[in-house]
Design goal:
The protein has 66 residues and is mainly β. 0% of the residues lie in helices and 45% in strands. A five-stranded antiparallel sheet has the order 4-3-2-1-5, with no helix packed on it. The radius of gyration is 14 Å and the shape is elongated. The two termini are 23 Å apart. The model has no long low-confidence stretch (mean pLDDT 90).
Amino acid sequence: MEESSEQKTYLHDDVEVVLTGRTATRELRRGKTDEKVEIKPTNPLQGSWTKWVRMSDLYTIDKEDE
């Protein structure tokens, strides 16, 4: 399966990752919501794991024009 070249990539723990599209939310006190997103490595050599993280834990990778 080939992934879109325009898909946003992120950095998490020095590994380039993409969002899987799945999210998890829970209601907190005082009407706040906690949300996590599922990520996976972009490179299959990094493994086939998934992990749940907050978006604030991810760094957006800006790709340069070639």
